[in-house]
Design brief:
The complex is a heterotrimer of chains A (about 90), B (about 250) and C (about 325). Chain B is mainly alpha-helical and about 250 residues long. Chain B has 11 helices and no strands. The chains are: A alpha+beta (about 90), B mainly alpha (about 250), C mainly alpha (about 325). Chains in contact: A-B, A-C, B-C. Chains A and C meet through strand 2 of A and helix 3, helix 6 and helix 12 of C.
Chain lengths: ~90, ~250, ~325
Amino acid sequence: MKKNWPLWEVFVRSKNGLEHRHFGSLHAPDAEIALNNARDVYTRRKEGVSIWVVESKYIKASNPDDNSELFDPADDKAYRHPTFYDLPDDVEHM
Amino acid sequence: MNNQNLTHYLYGLADNALILGQRLSELCGHGPTLETDIALTNIALDLLGQTRSYYQYIANLSHENLSEDDVAFLRKEHEYRNVLLVEQPNADFAYVITRQYFFDVFHFLMLEKLQNSKDLNLKAIAQKSIKEVSYHKRFSGDWLKRLGDGTELSQEKVQNAVNDLWVFTNELFETSKADQTVLKELQIESPETFKSDYYKIISSTLEEAKLNVPEVTYFQEGGKQGIHSEHMGYILADMQYMQRTYPDMKW
Amino acid sequence: MSAKEIKNLEDIFEAKIARDEKIEPKDWMPEKYRKTHIRQISQHAHSEIVGMLPEGNWITRAPSLRRKVALLAKVQDEAGHGLYLYSACETLGISREELYEQLHSGKAKYSSIFNYPTLTWADIGAIGWLVDGAAIINQVPLCNTSFGPYARAMVRVCKEESFHQRQGYEIMMTLCNGTQEQKDMAQDALNRWWWPSLMMFGPTDDESTHTEQSMKWKLKRKTNDELRQQFIDQTVPQADILGLKVPDEDLKYNNETGHYDFGEIDWSEFWQVVKGHGKCNKERIKARKEAWHNGEWVREAAMAYADKQDKRTTKQTG
């Protein structure tokens, strides 16, 4: 039975202090090679100081069809933002 | 320090990196996957970068206003001092990986010693290169294990490569009289001192990769003395083509 | 879904693109959008990896170490770009292996320019200058295309490609400042690559079938003819700086339009190459197929090793 190399997602931290960011994907037979490949493909120009790889099939993604129930309810919760609150002009830096 | 001896020694270092870099360059665009293609090219680029540092150093020593390219491209076959191992062809991926691993382990141990050299140029080159080579060794070692402990077919292919290339490993440790003078003066430990470590590391990786350590007692040598395999002429014919066809031009 | 419901979804979809919102892989999309994108992105990816071959032809013969590393890094970038683009394409539900299969069987196309041979070192200069120059003009607008993964891949590609064209032009410049033999070599390369480069923008607008749809989906921002004109206007002065003559007797700056007028393109040659009758069509595909075929046992070995490792770990922990 022929089995192709699975797909992996690559996350790179560009420098310490920043989060790992999704950089792209690649194919690899296992995690070690995926890490090597990620280094060789995505950090050729000093783009990173740390790499995560995860096999794509383990990522559970939300369904865009559910967007209205998942994300729209946050629309009218203005009280979660600082601009919702009135302060006298004399109060600075709050 | 005698410049002639030092130059002779440097050619030994530089030519290995050049010829292996040249061999790996042939593969660009023909790898088993895009990812592997990119990885092998990275190794080629590292080696060519190292080779340039050595040649620039040689050119500076020459006092004849030579360039790195003059010394890289314009020598006769017998003046190249690379070992036979690095000129072996890219017969298949098993050969490429085995050749690489056999060289990488040596290269790494050699650079470790070179880092402590009294020569500041060499020290700097070694300190930069060892990081690169540390990864090369990891890459080729990882693949050797996968090919050895993969399928029956891959095991057979990589065992063949190991058997064929093993005979070239001993030459890595060979030193000429001039080399020995330089090593002594610059207080670089001779390759002989890490030869047993080398074979220990290689043997343990081969074992882990479910491969047999060849029982060879006769080794091939000659590259370091300028007596190469028949492959070398073709490598140079390719590499020197422009320089020979259009002499004295800038590119 | 009823036809009416689909129509409704399509309207929402088109409105989204018109508002400059991106489409992401899991979003609903018309089947035609998916198919068109698979075709275009994979064609683009194939062009990158087939494009490695004509330039790869000169890596071992590069005339200096500096040129050698630059060329090697450039060809490697093309592998990277192919990889980014295949990945973008895979988000549309097709595997890289299937895409390769389409390339190898001749079902999928790639840019015809790579079916021309690289005969001299100057060709490496000309490719960087002209072919990459044309590619950049085609690609920059794609950084804003509607399909998110494609746009993101293109941002990365364009960023990395910025050195490619300079690399080529520098080679040409060095040749043109060199001996007569080198100048002749440069001129000969320009003569051979000029017209094929113009053809890279595709058939003229009245012959082009996909333009309107592609504009709507932001796969295109300008028409083939507009892009071609932009390329000519920007490249001719660069040829002048090199002291080379563009091989077109009808080429002339038009003061009224502010553009260069140029001669008739030989479209019969274009279609012949597209149909597979270029000098190198067969070799290019053969090289790709061989690389893939020769790598099969390697890919299988790595998978077999991974399976064994998995089983070992399960045994230990289980």
